[in-house]
Write a structure and sequence with these properties.
With 627 residues, this protein is α/β, with parallel strands linked by helices. The radius of gyration is 33 Å and the shape is elongated.
Length: 627
């Protein structure tokens, strides 16, 4: 076959193939996709899957740099930076932020350490471009909230800042001031602490909250904005539970200067730290900039490293952790001007049972600015009166230590929230018993008893109670004011056989046993009332008397009562542990019924009711406006 013939045959074959293929697809067209795929395609950027947004593709195509970036990304970034110096279009800054982040990711994954070491510089450059895109003054106006690039640029700024500061060994975060040389210039970073309520020396380390996924908590509370959310590991305070006290912190890099200053190395930046307990926004050139915060991850981080809290409830009840003292713990550093809310757990429990409530309440902006949250942790096997005395002593000493001169009025508006047995402890902070509890056991006043001065002092501490002047509101949750029907005699007998109690706890009822009324002795049989289950026996005269004692003048009370069988007659209502008739007491400002079992402190409706109560308490003090 002649060459010309071969060429003609090839052309014919190509035409035939093209015509045949034209029935299947055109070079330009569309295809059907799912809504989820459509969303991913619409909002694709370098943070999502390594692709670029349409806006960045436009900029690359504008200067014919698509293929060049694949071969030499550093050269493309430098070229676009030079063009942006004289080009007033804001989209170039957004494109540079995306390109720098993508190139930083490529360098970070490099096998060669010398190459990967330059990744933080490109991440810092990405943060700078994103900041300038959002906040700098240019010929074009700043992006609006309706522009998808606005939110994407905030995310680029936040994630780039995280990775730009990860210059320590193993990628650890380093908050350091000084000059940083960048691929297209330089910037000098100063560490500013004026808005930070704590000294940096008080912290062991700062960890990026983004590096952790949270489990076991229903909601991860985060506010969207600009800044890097951190877990600040504050060195153990006197009232901390562990080696470190995690607090939510946000780092914000405020940049002074534009592209020209960045190019000649005269640009400056202030790395500012903010407490997420205090600040939700900052001001940049009179513009309000919300801060990105994460208040849940520090809590989850602490609970991840607090094995004692998970074991405490049962082990302490059985007397296996007697070395752990009854104590008040501050789960956040003390801040003057914040009203303390003290949580008191129940039997065989620990502060971890308050996690859902604490996590939700602390995320509320009004509550976070108004309150601080504390916990009382105690061995729940002892007599309620003794544990309550420890609670009162802990609160008194804490207030005296934090505010010895009485200058913080917020401490005098304390709210105590107790669940189950913890509700009984709570009531002991807000009543004036006189000698009624002593007489309920002995039919005599304490001075009429033939006891040693030491034992009389012990009885006074446990049974003659005056209200704490700084407790102004108490909240009872599933509280057995008249005892629990599960504290029957046979259950108490079994408990006394397996519970190990220290001799100091046993001494009190043992020494006073002779003076108990005959009906009290008959109630407990031949066994001494030495455990919390004895205290919560439905026939215990101390609990029966306490239930009838009103709250002290000036103290408000609220009840939250769990009922898991609401369809039954009201006289049969119970939560599986406590009957409604035991949990209900007169004189409360409000009573809220939640359809749940006994451990309802994590129930969403219980939490919402506590929020309502705290809002009302704050409004009554003028701490927040009436909603």
């Amino acid at each position: 076959m002649m060459p010309e013939t071969k060429t003609l045959a090839a052309v014919v074959l190509v035409l035939v193939w093209a015509l045949a293929g034209s029935g299947c697809a055109t070079p330009v067209g569309v295809r059907n996709i799912t809504p989820r795929t459509a969303y991913q395609d619409t909002f694709e950027n370098s943070l999502s899957d390594g692709g670029f947004s349409d806006s960045t593709k436009v900029v690359l195509a504008r200067f014919d740099l698509q293929q060049t970036f694949k071969k030499n990304p550093a050269a493309v970034i430098e070229k676009l930076h030079k063009k942006a110096l004289s080009d007033g279009r804001r989209d170039m800054l957004y494109a540079l932020a995306e390109l720098c982040y993508e190139h930083g990711e490529q360098l970070h994954k490099s096998f060669f350490s010398s190459t990967s070491k330059s990744a933080p510089d490109y991440f810092l450059l990405s943060a700078v471009y994103a900041y300038l895109y959002i906040l700098s003054d240019m010929r074009e106006p700043p992006p609006s909230a309706f522009d998808q690039r606005f939110r994407a640029a905030c995310d680029l700024y936040n994630f780039s800042l995280w990775r730009a500061l990860s210059t320590g060994n193993g990628g650890r975060l380093v908050l350091q001031e000084g000059p940083r040389t960048l691929p297209v210039g330089g910037i000098s970073i100063a560490l500013k602490r004026a808005q930070f309520p704590w000294a940096l020396e008080d912290f062991e380390e700062f960890l990026p909250a983004y590096t952790y996924a949270v489990r076991g908590i229903t909601v991860r509370n985060r506010t969207r904005g600009m800044g890097l959310p951190l877990i600040g590991l504050k060195k153990q305070a006197e009232d901390g539970l562990s080696a470190y006290q995690p607090v939510p912190v946000t780092a914000f890099l405020d940049i002074q200067g534009g592209l020209a200053e960045l190019t000649n190395g005269s640009a400056a930046a202030s790395l500012k730290l903010y407490s997420a307990y205090d600040d939700a926004e900052v001001f940049v050139d009179n513009r309000v900039v919300p801060l990105e915060t994460d208040t849940t991850t520090p809590t989850a981080y602490q609970l991840e490293h607090e094995s004692i809290l998970w074991d405490f409830g049962l082990k302490s009840f059985l007397g296996k952790l007697t070395a752990v003292p009854n104590k008040l713990h501050l789960m956040q550093p003390y801040q003057p001007g914040r009203i303390p809310v003290v949580f008191v757990h129940g039997t065989m429990s620990s502060p971890v049972w308050w996690t859902e409530m604490w996590n939700t309440l602390r995320a509320d902006p009004e509550l976070r600015r108004t309150y601080q949250f504390w916990f009382f942790m105690y061995n729940s096997n002892a007599l309620v009166t003794l544990s309550a005395a420890d609670l009162r002593d802990s609160l008194r000493s804490q207030v005296a230590r934090l505010d010895p001169e009485g200058k913080d009025p917020a401490l005098a508006q304390m709210v105590v929230v107790g669940h189950s047995q913890g509700g009984l402890l709570t009531k002991f902070t807000a009543v004036d018993t006189g000698e009624r509890l002593v007489r309920s056991l002995t039919d005599k006043d304490i001075d009429s008893l033939d006891l040693s001065d030491e034992l009389k002092a012990l009885m006074r501490r446990a049974l003659i109670v005056e209200p704490l002047p700084f407790v102004k509101r108490v909240v009872f949750i599933s509280t057995p004011h008249r005892g629990s029907y599960l504290s029957s005699r046979w259950i108490r007998k079994i408990a006394q056989k397996i519970i190990s109690l220290p001799s100091t706890i046993v001494t009190f009822p043992l020494s006073a046993y002779t003076f108990l009324r005959d009906d009290v002795k008959n109630l407990f049989g031949d066994r001494l009332p030495v455990t919390s289950l004895d205290s919560m026996s439905p026939g215990n005269p101390v609990m029966k008397t306490l239930a009838e004692i009103p709250l002290a003048p000036g103290v408000k009370g609220n009840s939250i009562i769990a009922v898991k069988n609401p369809d039954d007659p009201k006289q049969e209502w119970n939560d599986g542990v406590v009957q409604y008739s035991s949990a209900h007491i007169e004189g409360m400002e409000s009573e809220f019924i939640v359809h749940a079992g006994h451990s309802c402190q994590g129930h969403p409706l219980t939490i919402e009711e506590v929020r309502r109560i705290l809002i009302k308490h704050a409004v009554s003090l003028g701490a927040i406006p009436n909603p």
